[in-house]
Design a protein that fits this description.
The chain is mostly helical. It has 2 domains: 7-50 and 117-234, Up-down Bundle (Glutathione S-transferase Yfyf (Class Pi), Chain A, domain 2), CATH 1.20.1050; 56-116. The protein has helices at 7-24, 29-52, 56-79, 89-114, 116-144, 148-151, 169-192, 200-234. Helix 2 (29-52) packs antiparallel against helix 5 and helix 2 (29-52) runs parallel beside helix 7.
């Protein structure tokens, strides 16, 4: 039973989608966008796999620094022996306060070092997810002017009207469907970063990308529904 996304399958689906776009719309810019998305998909698969692995060099370095810090704390305690019986209450309180402050600072330093790998991976994942978010907006721009009520019905164009691309109802449906497929696959690429992630910030960013692609995809399917209504009226 498969319970994880297969990056190879996603890349294969995108490559097939790129070929379909190139054959159906050889001059359309959407094909170039899909070609770039295929490259990004391969990079995403490698990056997600890399982020899932432990960073042993960083972990060993952090462990060594923590060990050195603990050794320094014990060494400091040995070099500065304190006789409590000879100290006044005010001196004892001041010494304890200094010791507590040092322990707090040392604990903060340990926490910083322990979470260093997580923050490093989070930064890389967020940068990659931002790139996928940009792809989604680029695809949305390609379908933005594909209004079925304008393309499939006679109308009087103005000088500011976008350049008209002659499409049949079938071609327009395929073009919009290709855009919807690309958006859906972007959501799956984003989900690859969540396969082994336990970082709440990364999970929220993945959900944002999936929500964005889902909302944009619903807009496209509304247009496809309109095309279906227009076809029914003509029959």
């Amino acid at each position: 039973m498969h319970r994880a996304l297969d990056p190879a399958r996603i890349i294969e689906t995108l490559e097939r989608l790129q070929a379909r776009i190139a054959e159906r719309f050889p001059e359309a810019g959407l094909g170039k966008v899909c070609a770039d998305l295929v490259v990004t998909a391969r990079e995403t698969a490698e990056r997600a796999d890399d982020l899932a692995k432990p960073h042993w060099t960083l972990r060993i370095t952090v462990f060594a620094l923590i060990a050195l810090g603990l050794a320094a704390q014990f060494a400091a305690a040995r070099f500065f022996p304190v006789s409590i019986g000879e100290m006044k209450a005010s001196e004892l309180a001041q010494g304890l306060d200094s010791a507590v402050n040092l322990l707090i600072l040392f604990g903060g330093a340990i926490w910083f070092l322990i979470t260093l790998e997580e923050r490093f991976k989070r930064r890389r994942a967020l940068d990659a997810l931002h790139q996928l978010r940009q792809f989604a907006h680029v695809i949305d721009m390609h379908q933005l002017t594909k209004d079925p009520t304008i393309i499939l019905r006679p109308h009087k164009a103005t000088q500011a009207s976008p350049a008209r691309r002659v499409m049949s109802q079938f071609e327009l449906t395929r073009y919009l469907d290709y855009c919807a497929e690309m958006l859906a696959l972007i959501g799956k690429l984003a989900a690859l970063y969540g396969e082994h992630a336990r970082d709440g910030v990364v999970i929220d960013a993945i959900n944002d990308v999936e929500n964005l692609t889902g909302n944009l995809g619903r807009k496209i399917w509304q247009k496809i529904t309109i095309i279906g209504v227009l076809e029914d009226r003509e029959t």
